[in-house]
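Board work, copied verbatim: ATP-dependent DNA helicase RecG
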Amino acid sequence: MNLHQPLTVLPGVGPKSAEKFKQLGLESLQDLLLYFPFRYEDFKSKNVLELEDGEKAVISGRVVTPANVSYYGYKRNRLRFTLKQGEVALAVNFFNQPYLADKIELGAALAVFGKWDKTKASLTGLKILAQTEDDLQPVYRLTQGVSQASLVKLIKTAFDQGLDLLLEENLPQVLLDRYQLAGRAQAVRAMHFPQDLADYRQALRRVKFEELFYFQMQLQVLKTEQKNVRNGLAMNWDQEVLTAKKASLPFELTEAQERSLREILQDLQSPAHMNRLLQGDVGSGKTVVAGLAMYAAAAAGLQSALMVPTEILAEQHVASLSQLFPELKLVLLTGSMKTAERRAALAAIETGQVDLIVGTHALIQEGVSYHRLGLVIIDEQHRFGVGQRRLLREKGLNPDVLMMTATPIPRTLAITAFGDMDVSIIDQLPAGRKPIITRWVQHEQLPVVLDWMAKELQKGAQVYFISPLIEESEALDLKNALALEEELKAYFGRSAQVALLHGKMKSDDKESVMQGFKDGKTDILVSTTVIEVGVNVPNATIMVIMDADRFGLSQLHQLRGRVGRGQKQSYAVLVANPKTESGKQRMKIMTETTDGFVLAEEDLKMRGSGEIFGSRQSGLPEFRVADIVEDYPILEEARRVASQITADPNWRQQADWHLLSLHLDRQDYLD
Ligand code: ADP
Ligand code: MG
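↓ predict structure ↓
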């Protein structure tokens, strides 16, 4: 037996159920053992003296009379016995379940879930629990066709067969001792079936450490490898050309832009590999910094690729970059291009006729070969996983990589979480920006908002109108957006042009709707959240967000950042009747600050890291148990140890750490 064998080696698992378990990511025995509960049902027994009449609760105690079944009437019966909890004896009645008598053993401990009848001092039993006091029952995530009970049973079977003993220890003794961590097999068992809360906490501490430590080991190893790569590109360009270009821009760079640019250019010139994160709030001007870096690369005779998450964004970048950098030869590459168009673009890329390639995922697909790819820039990097980043990197001449994100991550956290990257931060907005004025109104006040909008529209303003977000249902999203479009059309009649943009549209259609808005033909753009990232229409000065409380702070901040891009005063109107305190709190904070970092931290506090660092978005690994924010102290400690260990280039040969090198390559945090 080894843990890489498929689940079908377990009794009761055939090919059909194996297929179902596979949907949960469970293929091997090891997958099963490491499939931890996402929560526990606390079947902690209550004190019978504290129960209210009619309350349902678990009461545990000792069985002090034998079970007695009495029959009355047709098929009806009652099973009765006495349970003693401490010094209190109570009657327990089960109706019409005579077979339970087998489970009731005189003198044994027993826990019963039931309904308390205070006047009769008796418990009407609903369920007998196999547990005694303080029991925590695991609750697993399920999928169609896999029940809680069947999963628990399967995991129990695995433990009964002693499979946990096959789990190899993967942390060196030195670390187990230093942090007083439980052994691996013991911790895994306790994760599934903790004896009590203390047992669970101890196990959790161990598995969290293991996870974050291996994550950090991988990052640190990657980082030291990159630092040691001297065969990266050392770019060389005429400094004066770049200085002249900077001077010819329509604006002066902010100090923060200058500093970030300097850091990036230094990396480009150095033979070491660049792996840098450029972080800046929406509107802070990351694009021009990226543009200047690509300009420098072109001056050094190298191609650059700019990868963005959506086609609209790609097109927009093409437009704004060709305006700021008309000298650069530029081509667009997206998935929806026609064959002939695509072929021409590919040829231009391969023969080196273009300096800059802007596109979506299409940039890393088969069939794209670059001439001399020296710089890769990934915009809104949180949408791309580490694996994709790596793919793009491998396509070039070991190119330098710059990632840009508008998700404000506190610096210390960024450094730890993206441990393999250097970080540059643009923490300053261009001069002369007027802070966006944000108001929160209730749905009942919408007519007032519309009246006000009508006046602003007369003055030539344009409006984004964001329709409510229905999580998990694109169909409902669309329905909402359509309804909103109709209402606005009815309200404004011929006085305003209303158009709709939503996620399900073909990219051609999206493009033409966006273009209409940019050109000012459309006054009101009704949209689902597809415009969230990067879109730039300076004349749009009003953003109305329906059911704003459905969004997280960071997301609202991103959305709001679509306005306030020109000289005119901009406004964000949040329409929401939040039901919860935290919803109200969020609306209030939005009206009080426009600082993305403050909002990000509030968001973290209120909603946990999942929303910001959710695996789909962050490009960070999905941890089984650890939470990057909540477990930050563990992460920080893990980083410290990992960098100490890897600082010695021969760490793999050291007795203490040898074990790590064996397990390191089998971990998959960076895929
Ligand atoms: P983001 O960081 O959100 O990507 P952009 O790069 O799109 O921001 O910049 C937002 C707007 O600000 C653009 O219209 C850009 O041309 C302009 N901009 C950038 N830097 C400056 C600056 N230093 N001074 C004035 N305007 C600037
Ligand atoms: Mg941008």
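The first strand starts at residue 39 and ends at 42.
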